[in-house]
Amino acid sequence: MTEAKLFPKLDDNTALEESDILAPAFDADGLLPVIVTAAETGEVLMFAYMNDEALALSIDTGEAHFWSRSRKALWRKGETSGNKLRIAEIRTDCDQDVLWLKAEIKGAGACCHTGRVSCFYRSVPFGKEAGGKLVAVHTERHFDPDAVYGDPSKTKL
Questions:
Q1: What is the dihedral angle through the alpha carbons of 47, 52, 57, 58, rounded to the nearest 10 degrees?
Q2: Contact, 134 vs 147, CB < 8 A?
Q3: Which residue in 34, 84, 120, 125 could disulfide with 130, CB within 3.0 to 4.6 Å?
Q4: Distance of alpha carbon 131 from alpha carbon 125, whole angstroms
């Protein structure tokens, strides 16, 4: 991956934290972590990464684009499933090294490739009796992933 070049780099912390200049602090791999929540409910939908091109496309189109680390490719959320993310707002944190997208799910109403609303569909109980078991939070699937993506063993996240 190439070094981010579509956005300015600010070396001055005060300018980075207090100015009105978007200067994302991409990591050494040219990526920025992105948390996506539902604009209406605030529920966390997914976590992904953007490179400079994905961020620029997201800003230009209002649709979420990401960088797939496993496929090493740019992707528009919903290009296969039809479950696009229409961006309502993009926020950056104080040092511009994380993004928060508030988005509306279009299509079947599922953000996760498993067909569920959120990728965070299981809860991790805590305490001595938890036993390392996950508890399902979202069980309803809004679409059949096998019908959309084909053989799940060939789906590379």
A1: 30
A2: no
A3: 125
A4: 8
Distance of CA 60 to the CA centre of its chain: 17
Mean pLDDT within 15-40: 96
Q: What is the DSSP letter of 112?
A: S
CATH architecture, range 24-148: Roll (3.10)
Q: Where are the domains of the chain?
A: 24-148
What average pLDDT does this structure show over 85-107?
97
Model pLDDT, residue 2: 45
Torsion from C-alpha of 40, 43, 49, 55, nearest 10 degrees: 10
Q: CB count, 10 Å around CB of 86?
A: 15
